[in-house]
Write a structure and sequence with these properties.
This protein has about 300 residues and is mainly α. The protein has a domain of about 160 residues: MetI-like fold (Orthogonal Bundle), CATH 1.10.3720.10. It is built from 13 helices and no strands.
């Protein structure tokens, strides 16, 4: 298992290099620069600023300089947040974004999988139709719409939870629900389809014929053998919950990476854009590695 993990990590390194290269090229191809939005600067001052950040060098030289800097663990200074390194900004904001993403994942797993299993078990019943309707509604409604409705209903009408900020556990509930609910609907539909397919298998009929309790048949035999497509989706979904929290962080005024990334794109803050992009790329690579390792743990045949 350790050797497999190390091999996958080594395979992920070229992926990160390609992501860094493509991001660097795209940033330079987009018209404009990081200091074009400033008030008109004298040519001498502008030249000094560009020289300070090596923007006066050819593109190839800039790329090689940045990759060398990145290999040393230095993401460089932010162009817009004067006096702050990109590493410091990410260190302050990443824990907030990852916490929000993991809480949303709990919502996804805690709502989606039980709803999907129950819906499959009660196929074509009223409970099944309600679960399918709610899952479809969750998939169809964007997270920012759902988040706005939650703020209006739970905070402003019922006064149960605070509408914004990130100052304690009570402040985390609404953002996690708003971010996780759409994905929970998708997982519920996926779980329902997978469990329905397994419930029609011969070994499920054999287990019932042997007199096993329905909960044992459903959880031990049906869910265990239908979990593989769900695990495949949850891996990248975990990274997607973190990367997809931009709008939710903006709506709920959460001091995560999303706000800084939007500001960085608007201001052409090249180092900060590159830093956030690489963090998300690392998350996706690690999520895929974890999924493969979980596969090996669930099904020993994969090891062979």
């Amino acid at each position: 298992m350790v050797i497999f993990f190390l091999k996958r990590v080594l395979h992920g390194v070229p992926v990160l290099i390609v992501v860094a290269t493509l991001t660097f090229i795209i940033m330079r191809l987009v018209p404009g620069g990081p200091f074009d939005e400033e008030k008109k600067l004298p040519p001498e001052i502008l030249a000094n600023i560009q020289a300070k950040y090596h923007l006066d060098k050819p593109i190839a030289v800039q790329y090689l300089f940045y990759m060398k800097q990145l290999a040393q663990g230095d993401m460089g200074p932010s162009y817009k947040y004067i006096g702050r390194d990109v590493t410091d900004i990410l260190a302050d904001t990443f824990p907030v974004s990852i916490t929000l993403g993991l809480l949303a994942l709990l919502v996804v797993v805690g709502l989606g999988i039980p709803a999907g299993v129950w819906s499959a078990y009660r196929q074509n019943s009223a409970a099944d139709r309600i679960c399918v309707f709610l899952a479809t509604l969750g998939i169809s409604v964007p997270s920012f719409v759902f988040g706005t409705v939650l703020v209006w209903m739970i905070s402003h009408k019922l006064h149960w939870l605070p509408p914004a900020l990130w100052e304690g556990p009570r402040y985390m509930i609404l953002p996690a629900l708003a971010l996780g609910a759409p994905f929970a609907g998708y997982i519920a539909r996926l779980t329902r389809s997978a469990v329905l397919e397994v419930l029609a298998s011969d070994y499920i009929r054999t287990a019932r014929a042997k007199g096993l309790n329905e909960s044992v048949v459903l959880l031990k035999h049906a869910l265990k053998n239908s979990i593989y497509p769900i695990v495949s989706v949850i891996g990248p979904l975990t990274a997607g919950l973190v990367t997809g929290s931009f709008v939710i962080e903006f709506i709920f005024s959460i001091p995560g990476m999303g706000g800084f990334f939007i500001t960085a794109v608007t201001n052409r803050d090249y180092p900060l854009i590159m830093g956030v992009t690489l963090v998300y790329a690392v998350l996706i690579v690690l999520a895929n590695i974890v999924v493969d390792m979980v596969y090996m743990w669930l099904d020993p045949r994969v090891r062979v």
